[in-house]
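Running this now, will post back.
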Amino acid sequence: MAKRVAKVGIEKESGYLYFVDKDGDISCAKMARGAKKGGKPKKVAKVGIEKESGFLYFIDKNGDISSAKMVRGGKKKKATKKKAAKKATKKVVKKAVKKATKKKVVTKKVVKKATKKKVVKKVTKKVVKKVTKKKAKKRK
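Update: finished.
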C-alpha cells in the first residue's frame, strides 16, 4: 500500500501537525484546539522530493516520507443493460360522461336579533331623600 519515498527519521512532537509541503520538504504547524487557531507552518527538514499527481504524501511512524495511491469514489456501479424501446401503441380513451348531481336544498336558520335593553335612568339621591321625608311626615 504505502511506499517509503525518502528516509528522514525526524522525531514528531505532540501538538503539531507534520506534512509534506509544496516544495517536497517536511513542515509542521501547531494544531488548532477549540477556539484557539493553529500556528503558521515552519520547515523542519529540507528533502526536496518531487510529488507525483494521484499520490498522497505523508510522514509515517518512523518519521520518513511515504506515499500511497489516492483512492477516489467508492464502490463502482455495475453497468446496467439498456432496455429495448417499446413501440408506441395507441390507447383508446373513453370519455367519461358526467352525471348531473342534484343539489341539496339548504334551509337557512333564522337567527333572532338581540334586542337592546332600555337604559333605566338612575334616580338622584336628592329625589330619594325628598320622597322619604314626605313619607315620614305622613306617618306623624
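Residues 55 and 113 are 89 Å apart (CA to CA). More later if anyone needs it.
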